[in-house]
Design brief:
Blueprint: H1 2-5, H2 12-34, H3 37-62, H4 64-69, H5 73-94, H6 97-102, H7 112-132, H8 135-148, H9 152-160, H10 162-181, H11 196-218, H12 239-273, H13 276-284
Length: about 300
């Protein structure tokens, strides 16, 4: 029981989570005054998922998971999967974007001066956001972030330097995860910009990257990759065995999110094509079907 009750920590993400929750509630209150009741009710129902995502975020970075991640690689892997899969899927499904925008203190339509100031900052951010939301960018970024941070050099650096871990590793996991799952989970006002065929291909390709990474860490190597887990006082689990357990967790838990999403995508394909064979033909590129990696509107 001590493993669950001890070693809770304070982390900057607690402040971020509290600010986001308050900001979101202010936005909901603003929308309630000027929007249709049905929209507000829908946003309120979705907010439960958004707040659940914030809770899972705090569990990942402030609970004993964070403490034991410094001693056990497999615990670190659980933490990484929470940050790349669990938290982003809940946040994207929670669709907090409209309330967060409604709570902004400056409206570009209020005054001419306000519009000039806002555009000066907003336009570059909007351009960067539109680029990152392009399907090929977000899907590639997800795999790149996953692979890079599990290479020995970057991983050891992040484990030894809390600033690198919190503000580079953790944030990149969260941002890449949100951008990735926006391609699969409806999250108004964002629109899913790729076809079900492209979604299926992207999921398969991402899963292959995870499988290769898991196999490389698990049984395609003969020793531990990470020096930070060698010779930790009081830890009897061999570093290589620890790494193999972590590789298994990456393989199994990654599929826990990917497989249900793939089933949902295939159901959409069946609804469009009417048969399993036609759906398979589209995924494999046979016939006249073409892949449409469309940009977001």
């Amino acid at each position: 029981m001590n493993y669950l009750t001890e070693h809770w920590s304070f982390d900057p993400f607690l402040v971020i989570a509290i600010v986001l929750a308050i900001w979101h509630e202010i936005g909901l209150a603003c929308l309630a005054r000027r929007s249709a009741p049905d929209l507000v009710k829908q946003l309120r129902r979705r907010s439960v998922l958004f707040y659940a995502g914030l809770v899972v975020l705090l569990i990942a970075v402030q609970s004993p998971i964070e403490y034991w991640a410094y001693d056990y690689f497999f615990v670190h892997m659980i933490q990484h999967l929470l940050l790349m899969f669990a938290v982003p899927t809940l946040v994207v499904a929670g669709a907090p974007w409209q309330p967060l925008r409604a709570a902004l203190p400056v409206r570009t339509s209020e005054t001419g001066a306000g519009e000039v100031v806002a555009n000066r900052w907003f336009r570059p951010l909007q351009a960067a956001g539109q680029f990152m939301l392009r399907p090929w960018v977000s899907l590639t970024l997800f795999s790149v972030v996953m692979v890079v941070w599990h290479l020995p050099g970057p991983f050891d650096l992040a484990d030894r330097n809390q600033t690198v871990q919190v503000w580079l590793m953790f944030l990149s996991f969260l941002i890449a995860g949100v951008l990735f799952w926006l391609q699969f989970i409806p999250s108004p006002p964002f629109r899913i910009g790729i076809t079900p065929v492209s979604q299926a291909i992207a999921l398969l390709a991402t899963n292959v990257v995870m499988w290769v990474l898991a196999m490389a860490m698990g049984f395609l190597t003969s020793g531990s990759w990470y020096s930070v887990y060698n010779h930790i006082p009081g830890i009897t689990l061999p570093a290589f065995a620890d790494q193999q357990i972590g590789a298994g967790i990456l393989w199994i838990c990654g599929d826990f999110w990917a497989v249900p999403t793939m089933v949902f995508v295939i159901k959409k394909l069946l609804a469009e094509d009417g048969s399993v064979s036609a759906a398979v033909d589209r995924i494999l590129g046979r016939g006249s079907a073409r892949f449409n990696w469309a940009n977001r509107g």
